[in-house]
Amino acid sequence: MQSPIVHRSRKFETVMQHTYHRIARSLQKSIEAGHLTPGEKLPSVRAYAQTMGVSVSTVTRCYRHLETSGHVVARLKSGMYVADRPIAKSRQRRHLETTPSKAPPLELQKLASLQDRLTQLHSLTTQPMRFALHLANADAQWYPNEALARIGQRLLRSQPQLLGSYPTGTGLPALKQALIRHLASSGVDLEPDDILITQGSTEAMQLALRAVTQPGDTVIVESPVYFGLLQMLEALGLKALEVPSPAHCNGISLEALEYALEHNRSVKAIVLMPRFQNPSGTTMSLTAKRQLIKIISAYPVTLIEDDVFGDFSAATEPPQPLKAWDRMGEIIYCAGASKSIAPGLRIGWIAAGRHQQRINSLKLSSSLSTPIFEQAVLAEYLNSNAFPVHMRTLRQRLKTCVQPAQDAIRRYFPKGTKITCPDGGWWLWLELPEPFDAMDLLRSCVSHGIAFAPGALFSGSAKFQHCLRLNIGRPWDRDMDSCLKTIGSLACARYQNTHQ
After folding, report:
1. What pLDDT, in 10s, does the model give residues 22-65?
2. Which secondary-structure segment (H or E) carries 66?
3. How many other CB atoms are found less than 10 A from the CB of residue 146?
4. Angstrom distance (rounded) from CA 241 to CA 80
5. DSSP code of 351?
């Protein structure tokens, strides 16, 4: 029998939903009728709640609903405003009666920083997404969750002191030995003292940057580049110098890189993803890697290699990381387990060569150490030899998603859409015919329970506004085909409106 408390709670939730929908419909009608004009500020949440005699949470949900539908926009530290409508007032009501309301494009040039753009993305995707294609991970069921759980349970039974032990040192010796064996298969020869275990690859990258730069220094990055790196540089007070990394070059443009190094003496570091770059998924050729190392050796800069996707090669002879050619300890190598083994296992590692002692000291001053239990679980998993089998299976699953996703994009997306296929990983980088605002498209997709990563996030200047990164690392089925059809249909409608 259902609890009276649960019954009352559900009844209250139903009443609250009815209330905020009723208020939202009333405001929407006022906006569409022109009673509330574009740019007009709405009352604050608290003030409107008092006016309507409802709770603050009800008005908050009402405003969020109107923001999702494109009728209002949030301005940072200012409030809610009626959105600009692209249709002339004389035609507005007639147009709205015959066509669905069009969400206004987000004007990225008015946002102060990359952080503002990330905040906008977060605000658009806070509601549960049926298709969270903006994330950089494979489907949860494709990771060895049960195997890791069994290891964890066994360790807790046999070594419960792992939870009561204070972690010290630079990492669990068993995990270091497992990583040394694993990296040796890629041509990287290390000793235990050459590795520091970190709390994910993000901490590894932060430590690397802090070790070789000071606030105000310049760091060269690829363009497009993973937006998390841009956010990190901004937080550390560093300047990002974006060097083109065209898909047809399979890596950073070496000519542009050499020019940038020659004309920018403030450059202290270069951050690259030579194996399966994010967001393009491309890999540098062996010839390009050798030329890159030759170029960098002529300048007083440190190369930081982000190899978090390095294990995703399906080739018989996988490409080696740049660290495999490092004989003088000049390259700082960063990687982690969250992409290949388990997103919830926040374990990373860094091999920094001549910078190792500096980075070990920085680790002590930041997070002190890395949780020992997670290290023990990962060490036992790697030592069980299950990892190579898991990666073969994961790579095969990802590979089977690429072709049907490409076919769907060619069927449903605007003619002229360019697709960059990954050498490894789980996303496609799409370039839609210009001009196109992918952030505007995202706003519409969110209302359908779909999210992707708009291209404007992958540059400090928002120059990839017509691009998007689409995660396809999940089982391909009718639902995924329908999802891409929805994105493509919305994209075609916006493209036609732009060119009328």
Report:
1. 888 888 888 888 888 887 888 888 888 888 888 877 887 788 77
2. helix 56-68
3. 8
4. 35
5. E
Domain with CATH 3.40.640.10 in the chain: 145-384
Topology classification of domain 4-104: Arc Repressor Mutant, subunit A (1.10.10)
**How does pLDDT run across 64-75, given as a tens digit for each residue?**
778 777 788 776
Task: Look at the chain and count its residues.
Answer: 500
Of 261, 262, 254, the closest CA to residue 302 belongs to 261
pLDDT > 80? residue 386: yes
Calculate mean pLDDT across residues 263-278.
Answer: 94
Report DSSP letters for 311-325, one per residue: GG--SSSPPPPGGGG
Task: Give CATH for domain 145-384.
Answer: 3.40.640.10
CATH class as words, domain 392-498: alpha beta
> What DSSP string runs through 198-255?
ESHHHHHHHHHHHHH--TT-EEEEEES--HHHHHHHHHTTPEEEEEE--GGGTS--HH
Q: Where in the chain is the domain with CATH 1.10.10.10?
A: 4-104
Pairing of strands 72-75, 131-132: unpaired
Position 368: which residue type? L
In order, the DSSP letters of 138-199 are --GGGS-HHHHHHHHHHHHHH-THHHHSPP-SSS-HHHHHHHHHHHHTTT----GGG-EEES
